[in-house]
Amino acid sequence: MIGNIRKLLAATLTLLASTMLVLTISSPALAQGKTLTVRFYDDPAGFDPANIFRIENENIAFNIFSGLTTYDGETGEIVPDLAVSWETTDNKTWTFKLREGVTFHKDYGDFTAADVIYSFNRIKDPATASPYASELAGIVSMEAPDPYTLIIELDAPNGNFLHTVANYHQGQIVSQKAIEEAGDQVRWQPIGTGPYYLESIDVSSQIVLKRHEDYYKGPAPIETIVFNIIKDEATATIALRNGEVDLVMRSNKEENLEVLEAEGFTMNSVKDYAVVIGVLNPEFEPFANPLVRKAMAHAVDYASITQAISPSLTQPHHSMLLPWMDVYTDDVPKYEYDPEKAKALLVEAGYPDGFTFKNLGTSAQGVTELQQFQIDFLSQVGINMEMELVDTPTFNQRRNAGEFDMASRLLPAVNPDMILFSYLHPDNMVPNGLNGARYDNPEVTNLLEAARAEPDKEKAFEMYKQVQQIVAEDAVYLATYSNNVFWPGKPEVTGVHINYLAQVNFYDVNIAE
Amino acid sequence: MNYQAPVKTTLLEVRDLRTQFQTASGTVKAVDGVSFTIERGERLAVVGESGSGKSAMAMSILRLLTHPGRVVGGEILLDGRDISRLSEGQLNTVRGRLVGTVFQDPMSSLDPVMRISRQMIEPIMRNLRLNRDQARAEAIKWLDKVGIPEPERRIEAYPFEMSGGMRQRVMIAMALASRPQLVIADEPTTALDVTIQAQIVEVLKTLTAEAGSAMMFITHDLGLVARFAHKVAVMYAGRIVEFGRVEDIFANPAHPYTQSLLGTIPSTTMLKSERLPQISGLPPDMRHEITGCAFKDRCAAAHDRCLAEAPRLTDRGHEHTAACWTPHGLEQALATGQQHATRLNKPFEPDGSVVVELNALRKQFATSRKMVVRAVNGVNLRVHKGETLGIVGESGCGKSTVARMLLGLERPTSGDIFIAGLAQMVFQDPAASFNPKMTIGDIVAEPLVVKSRGSKAERLDTVKRLISQVGLDPAFVERYPHQLSGGQRQRVAVARALALNPSVVVADEPTSALDVSVRAQIINLLVDLKEELGISFVFISHDLLTVRYISDRIAVMYLGEVVEYGAAEEVFADPRHPYTRALIDAVPVPDPVVESRRAATPLQGELPSPLNLPKGCAFASRCPMATDRCRAEKPALPDHDLSRQVACHYAH
Amino acid sequence: MTDITLTTTSAPKTGPFAILLAASRHPLLSHAKVRLALLILIPILVLTILAPVLPIQKPLETNLRAMMQFPSIEHVFGTDKMGRDIFSRTLAGVQISLLVGFSVASIALTFGMVLGTLAGFYGGWLDRAIMTVVDIFLAFPSLLLAIGLVSVMGTGIVPVIFAISLADVPRFIRLQRSQVLSLRSRAFIDAARTVDASQYWLMTRHIVPNTIAPMLVAASIAAANAILVEASLSFLGLGIMPPQPSLGNIVRDGQTYLEQAWWISTLPGVVILLIAIGLHFLSDGVRELLDPRSH
Amino acid sequence: MAEYTAKKLVQMLITVLGVITLVFFTLRLIPGDAASAMAGDTLSGEALQALREQMGLDEPLVNQYLGFLRDLVTVDLGETITTRIPIAELLLRALPITLSIALATIVLSILISIPLGTLAAFMAHKGRNWLDNGLTGAAMIIDLMPSFWMALVLLLIFSLGLGWFPASGQLNWSDPWALVLRLALPVIVLSLSQVATLARITRTAVLEVLNEDYVRTARSMGWSELRVLFRHALKNAALPIATVVGLSFGNLLGGTVIVEFIFTIPGVGNLLISGINSRDYQLVQTLIVFYALLFVVINFATDLIYKTLDPRVQF
């Protein structure tokens, strides 16, 4: 009997001991040199470009890998990365001149065109089962006349191909050697050409990046970046205020931001990161009527709501595209808050005493404060909005299938053409694509295709402008508000530029003495 | 204090001791001005019913009361030192050293998770200033003295490994080992069987005498008092109502309460035709202020003065005092009482019709370790119409199992039971045998409802009839068990048993949970009912005197067998089986003269475990006259012979 | 004790007044703890019931011009981030929470009583079967059990009630079973068997009535805990969904503003505390009244 | 003894098997699977299906179930579905953290609650109830504070206000003091409610013993009240207390979930929550079965210890 107990005890002790060993080994031995501690808000899910999900993982990958092009941290424009230059005449055949003297992390050798070809083929290969395969589906052929020249042939003109090959998802270049060595552990052994490489990771508590000494732009100013996983927002804020972390990745609670700002922390942020739109399903009879859609737009005072809930995180917005996009236009019909007009429109549309509809939401998120206000405002014009809460996977599945009266979507993409195509082109109509409004307007469709093929920026812009006007006029999608991303940090942490993919290039970040 | 007196020197003098319990429903004056003295080496018996304050008084002396009990007044002079004024610390030098204590329930009075050695040795070391080894030797010596076999081994035992009797012996050894001047024994034998009781009393008596310690012996059993006390203090409602030398108290009691108490106990010679004198009513509720004599409501001789003022203890000649206004208590009242006390009790003559018949009845319980307990081991018995059969024996002799089988609560392992008509039961503990959530009415009516006899109205009538039949107010149907006294509950139990007018009523220790004064009431009730209804009774008890008084025939059981059977008087007058004899000898008789004449050699040893029964005579292990033959072959009992039967080779 | 109960049982049972009188003399009310409990619970209940007619903002009504206001005459508990009146939300929350609490209690009570009695009374394979299942459920930490269930059934009142009950029922079965086991050997059961009463009779007339009181005590505690577990579930986003207020999610939502507006979560928190304390006192009182040793 | 143990073991086996089955199939009832949870809203039909196949989610349930059982028997905990990490490794990292929290909590609460409870009982026995009442009151209030609420308040006071303890950061086993500071707050939060219950248990147990006859016997032998309290009362009360401690330890392992989440401690609880969020059955079911196993074993151990400590219990 006593014997049993002793055995049990012994077992646990050995377990404890062995574990401590494991931990002490795996815990990073931080050398001298600058170290930046960053709050990371969820469990890392791996960094294999072919199978990467969720912004926080993408941000790590963004600093490990490089693409042919990348986004300028401040302006958000496409700028050269692994490709020093490119040329195309018809948006169909693209020729890239590649950067020389670029090396992969650790000792995985120099970067050449072969790596690009390998990376893209890997994505396209069905065996990889990469969700991003479709992005590169347009590539018909790739050739490298010499190690630093790459010619890519597309099946159709695509003026936005530079976005496709940017340092993001399918665009990130991997090393064949590394991939083959890693086997099914690619996601944990990412080898790229970026400014930082992954030194160690404890999936349940921290990720440690070390700078890539041979980075082609020269070594980054900060030697070590430690990402501490802190899930709870309140705790993260306290951690920053305690000085336990230098930088908080994505602080998205207004009240915390207020406190931090008041205490003099730098509120690194990007405005209009993405817009939230209400998708109205025309198969739900009232929403088939443009008048009703306009009434919906007039009924809710997004200005004051955003002001009330989170003035720093959100602002009202009236378009599917965002002001910083090159094809954006402000010259479109707008729907100001006007309950009377809303009522009038409803009468005109034949709904004098309103109607009831269901807004699809996730039970994980619950009924957001914004939605609670929406309910309130709509009820004042006689429209009764009910929330239909389902668990997240079901929500995604139903939203992708277009099974809802109304559902909202966040449009995170730097590529306006992609947004417009996927939300307005009949080919992308749900369930095949994201066109949840089932919008099929030949005029718009033609404009879109023409614009994409048009090499002349000016002409293309005109067409995109028209599209935006028509769509706003029809109130196809309910533009509600756009939101901003905040990475509050200590004042001495400089160069935190959040790009429009909500990502920070840590090469620019430094800590001032 | 009269120290100059050479022979007698006062050891303990208690003056006007007052103890109270502060309860939510009022202050209970448990001890209300008690004064007495104990001489060195003297044995004082404090007699009284439950609630008379006798235990509270005893506990007050060493301040062993727990909250909410509290000594509120009086002096306690031990050797002339007032220990009631001592601090806890000082008192601890008195407790266990000068005054030893033996408590009522040996089962719970020893620490269950400590070996005997630890519980015994340390006090001895402290009190006698001995080192561990000496103390150990001392402890073993005392264990031997109190009659614990192989003390060297048993001292390392845990309490749960010992029988009740053994534990009580240990308690005594613990109390005496420090050579106290005074031993306070609070009902030390109540929880034990007659034979064990006798042994314990004997041990206490001889050892205290030997050590010259005085003893204060609290009990409700007048028999025991007669057996060994020098002086007696009778307590009632928190006061001493009579005090004196034991002979005087028994010979000519002066207080009505004492007188009636003595009357309520059936004597060995008492005739069935005499009605058992009983004390009517109940003791007073101690939460209320008592004006006048506390006993007045139950006293036949009570008069105006008794109602008005409480009597003090007054001298009745040589050290005999009593608290009663009338000079000779009940005497007149009793004199007049005698007439209606007799009854037309026709002695029972069998008309041959058998109501209950048990043939070769056996019951075995399988314990976890595939061993069998032979609780009942081949019993043949008969009960005739209108007959009362008394079954006596120590606990574990199987008498209760027989009863349970009679009522179908247990299924016999072998043998058969024949019952003409229906058997009903009166249980030992009336408190437990009622569902607390049911009214008296429902309880009595339950048999009728279950058997769906009559309409609701009819049932109610029957119930009321039964309840008044057992001498209770029909209004009781409204009440709940906890609102009734023990005696009242037992009456209800009887009423319930009669509900289905059974042919035989089995009463398992029906009076053992009751106070002496109430006991007689129930016994009389049963006898009366038997006469009125002519039903048969099976009366199971370890109280031999009562059994003798109430039953026509007696069966003495030992280890699941009947060892002697016959007419009650005969068995008592001339017991043939050595066990029967031992039992009867063990019974304390409330008469100091008789007791003093008795040979003080109680039956030795204890009941052997029914797990491994001897193959010969079950009693051989304890029998003074056992021979090899006894151990070899089992003496048989000729079955179903109405005359005397004895299962002993040497029965003459 | 005796005489107290006597007065109640002998009290005239005719006419509402007489009954009230009798009730007022009932030992329950004579008990300090019980009185205190009622003193706490009854006002809360009354307010909750009256909430709809009280002159206060409706629980769901937002007000952009009165956000995060400090308690005042107009808003007794102040207002929250969306300018909703916390007092009226709290009352609405109490409604929900009490609903949760008492549903859980009654579910646990019913199943615990039935299964526990069966297991304890019949024993044998039935007992073994029931207790095995009970053990299985007891092997989960109860919060995990609840989490698992809610993730299966989705959020909302019903799943929450169900989840919490599922954690409680096994405990109740255990309690009831042990009670039955100890009762089964009591003398009054034998007494009933001597007139060969049926098993059903024994269970319904003798066993169950004697088990109810302790079960009720347990139930009232279970109710109090249920309210808190609901709160914890809401914290993990598995409880009752806003805007539907429950004490749990009010406190949860409020806690993020603890620094800027402590009252949002503190005041409703105090209400939870009061209710639970009330329930505990009630059960305590009842237990003490039922415990023979206490009088 | 042996017979008893054997019987108990069989019982445990059945229980655990039941748990396993229950967990496995309940999990499959949760809408959505690892693939969809991982992909979020970014994926459409066939891409998702591809992902599923890659994760082996398209196998028939029965095979998955049998596979799971086989793995358990061969003590092969497998990998997380989504991130392909050996679960054993995860557990080995998380377990000591959760264990040390639970242990520390138990120790701390015992150190506080047992003297407190004993004192309360002692005074109650003497008819002085104020400490007793105060204790019960405090216990109640603590019991009723939602742990997440308490946690945040403590964070604000001790971490932000007084700066005594860190709110986040790595658990560095090589620096014990830092470790203590890091774990202090969670342990305190958990201990508070433990103390509340334990103190009350102790109080009742001791009070009960104090009313026993053998305590009176000891007093009658002239031992001081304190000696009686420690020699007899506590010794006898120890058994029930020990049992409760054992059980509460089992519950603690489950109770750490919220605390680990708020204080971002990479313990088993945190692991479980992420498992549920990412619909990683493999992880979740392994963890829960592990919990159950631990719980059952602890109960069994307490039971045996009880039986061995109490001389009265024979096997």
Strands, helices and their partners?
The complex is a heterotetramer of chains A (513), B (652), C (295) and D (315).
Chain A: H1 2-26, E1 35-40, H2 55-64, E2 69-71, E3 78-80, E4 83-87, E5 93-98, H3 113-124, E6 139-143, E7 149-154, H4 161-164, H5 176-182, E8 196-202, E9 206-211, E10 224-229, H6 233-241, E11 247-248, H7 254-262, E12 266-280, H8 290-299, H9 302-309, E13 314-316, H10 339-349, E14 356-362, H11 369-380, E15 384-390, H12 392-401, E16 406-411, H13 416-424, H14 442-453, H15 457-474, E17 477-489, E18 493-494, E19 510-511
Parallel strand pairs in A: 1-10, 1-11, 14-15, 14-16
Antiparallel strand pairs in A: 2-3, 4-5, 5-7, 6-7, 8-9, 9-10, 12-16, 12-17, 13-17, 18-19
Helix pairs in contact in A: 8-10, 13-14, 14-15
Chain B: E1 10-23, E2 26-39, E3 43-47, H1 54-61, E4 69-78, E5 81-82, H2 88-94, E6 99-102, H3 116-128, H4 132-145, H5 151-154, H6 164-177, E7 182-186, H7 194-211, E8 214-219, H8 222-228, E9 231-236, E10 239-245, H9 246-251, H10 256-264, H11 304-308, E11 314-315, E12 321-322, H12 331-341, E13 354-366, E14 372-384, E15 388-392, H13 399-406, E16 414-419, E17 423-426, H14 440-450, H15 456-469, H16 486-498, E18 504-508, H17 516-533, E19 536-540, H18 544-550, E20 553-558, E21 561-567, H19 568-573, H20 578-586, H21 592-597, H22 628-632, E22 645-646
Chain D: H1 2-29, H2 34-39, H3 45-55, H4 61-73, H5 87-125, H6 130-144, H7 147-161, H8 176-210, H9 213-220, H10 225-262, H11 268-277, H12 281-309
3D structure, described in words:
The complex is a heterotetramer of chains A (513), B (652), C (295) and D (315). Chain A is of the alpha+beta class and 513 residues long. Chain A has helices at residues 2-26, 55-64, 113-124, 161-164, 176-182, 233-241, 254-262, 290-299, 302-309, 339-349, 369-380, 392-401, 416-424, 442-453, 457-474; strands spanning 35-40, 69-71, 78-80, 83-87, 93-98, 139-143, 149-154, 196-202, 206-211, 224-229, 247-248, 266-280, 314-316, 356-362, 384-390, 406-411, 477-489, 493-494, 510-511. Chain B is an alpha/beta fold and 652 residues long. Chain B has three domains: 10-98 and 180-343, Rossmann fold, CATH 3.40.50.300; 109-179, no CATH class; 354-579, Rossmann fold (3-Layer(aba) Sandwich), CATH 3.40.50.300. Chain B has 22 helices and 22 strands. In chain B, a hairpin with a 2-residue loop joins strand 9 (231-236) and strand 10. In chain B, helix 4 (132-145) packs across helix 6 and helix 6 runs parallel beside helix 7 (194-211). Chain B starts with 9 loop residues before the first strand and ends in a 6-residue tail after the last strand. Chain C has 295 residues and is an all-alpha fold. In chain C, 73% of the residues lie in helices and 0% in strands. Residues 1-13 of chain C have low confidence and may be disordered. Chains A and D meet through helix 1, helix 6 and helix 12 of A and helix 2, helix 3, helix 5, helix 7 and helix 11 of D.
